């Protein structure tokens, strides 16, 4: 009865034909060893895969932290500079300061500025209406709302703006 569970394997070697007999338990042990070897290879491959993914994620995070410095917003060149602001004036109330470099004044910007008459025209046509003003202050863009209006001082703004030489 035991013989029917044995498997005969023949090999031809230098000394002739070798006949080996294996039992089902021998086959099971071989399959278990093969399974262990395959599982070890899979485990090693998974460790390598996860290590690569972790390294890639760390690289991506490092690059994303560097990007804000690389992608700094380039500010347009100023076309005018504020050289005086009177205390209590609309310009003072809006937050305009001496030294601010103007890059936008209502509809006037770096691309369409020709002379100070452009700003004067916008101010005259905007009395009582808020104007969007953008300046560069300490290297940063600062936006404010300035409403040209009559006040106790001279003009509608209470500041002096001079053109910047380009």
From TrEMBL:
Cite the InterPro entries for this sequence.
Nas2_N (IPR040815), PDZ (IPR001478), PDZ_6 (IPR041489), PDZ_sf (IPR036034), PSMD9 (IPR035269)
GO CC terms on record?
Answer: cytoplasm; nucleus
User: Which terms are listed as keywords in the entry?
Assistant: Chaperone
Has UniProt tagged this entry with the keyword Chaperone?
Answer: yes
Stored SMART domains: PDZ (SM00228)
Superkingdom per UniProt: Eukaryota
Domain PDZ: residue ranges: 13-139
Q: Where is this region: Disordered?
A: 51-77
GO BP field: proteasome regulatory particle assembly
PANTHER family xref list: 26S PROTEASOME NON-ATPASE REGULATORY SUBUNIT 9 (PTHR12651)
Function, in words:
Acts as a chaperone during the assembly of the 26S proteasome, specifically of the base subcomplex of the PA700/19S regulatory complex (RC). During the base subcomplex assembly is part of an intermediate PSMD9:PSMC6:PSMC3 module, also known as modulator trimer complex; PSMD9 is released during the further base assembly process.
State the oligomer form and interacting partners: Interacts with PSMC3. Part of a transient complex (modulator) containing PSMD9, PSMC6 and PSMC3 formed during the assembly of the 26S proteasome.
UniProt lists the family membership as follows:
Belongs to the proteasome subunit p27 family.
What is the recorded name of this protein? 26S proteasome non-ATPase regulatory subunit 9
């Amino acid at each position: 009865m035991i013989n029917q569970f044995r498997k005969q394997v023949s090999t031809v070697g230098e000394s002739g034909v070798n006949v080996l007999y294996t039992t089902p338990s021998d086959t099971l042990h071989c399959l278990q060893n093969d399974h262990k070897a395959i599982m070890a290879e899979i485990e090693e491959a998974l460790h390598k895969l996860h290590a690569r993914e972790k390294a890639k994620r760390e690289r991506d995070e490092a690059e994303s932290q560097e990007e804000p410095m690389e992608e700094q917003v380039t500010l347009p060149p100023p076309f005018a500079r504020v050289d005086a602001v009177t205390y209590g004036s609309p310009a003072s109330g809006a937050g305009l300061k001496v030294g601010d470099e103007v890059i936008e004044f209502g509809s006037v910007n770096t691309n369409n500025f020709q002379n100070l008459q452009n700003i004067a025209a916008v101010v005259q046509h905007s009395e009582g209406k808020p104007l969007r003003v953008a300046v560069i202050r300490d290297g940063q863009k600062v936006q404010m709302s300035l409403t040209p209006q009559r006040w106790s001082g001279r003009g509608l703004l209470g500041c002096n703006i001079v053109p910047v030489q380009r």
